[in-house]
Structure prediction request, 245 residues.
Amino acid sequence: LPQTPVRAAMNSIQQLIMILNSATDKPSDTLVRYFNNCTVNPKDSILKRVERLEQVFKKKFAEAVGQGCAEIGSQRYKLGVRLYYRVMESMLKSEEERLSVQNFSKLLNGNVFHTSLLACAVEVVVATYGRNASPSDGTSAETDLSFPWILNVFDLKAFDFYKVIESFIKAEPSLTRVMIKHLERCEHQIMESLAWQSGSPLFELIKQSKEREGQADQPEPSVT
Amino acid sequence: TQDYHFGLEEGEGISELFDCD
Prediction:
């Protein structure tokens, strides 16, 4: 039977919560094994980053939605963290199988990788709950938390966020079709616009690529 | 994932994307 928009939204939220009920707020034993296999154990830096970004997210969420909603922001962030660890473990298992390695020191000690992955997980949670994060008493104005809001919150470049999307979708088979389409729209928005904004890492990569190819052209300014 | 276009090739994954190969 066709669902009303409200019923569809409630089902999506329930589905997400059910999936994440079995996930943990901390790295699993399997994840800890991967951390221990690293040349430099990233566990402490990962935990500290998660803690730091919780405060950042809670603050920005409260600024966007209302100070009274800070705890709602914290709850949504915590769901995002569970998804983050769950997807990270799945990604590492796939990479271990693909590359036949167990030492992912460079990847797991990379701040950009973790921030991008966590941002993607939190984006999934925020998008599942929808645009309106306010209490339903009608006293608050609607607040737009839709993408690319999360990039501003975590001070993340769109191009770096883009890098995790496809692997995220591959690593999390429980993502609904609606959520996959949402992430695909994020990809398109990045490819068509956000990745080309001033300061994007894309320009440096293009420049390096041209230098490797031996071309001596001066890179065009980003404004053109 | 039927409608989603997977762009990564067979030998590509998250390690390459973050320059960790």
Q: What stands out?
A: The interface with chain A takes residues 1, 3-8, 13-15, 17-18, 20 of chain B (CB under 8 Å). Chain B has a mean pLDDT of 83. The two ends of chain B are 27 Å apart (CA to CA). Residues 14-17 of chain B form the longest helix (4 residues).
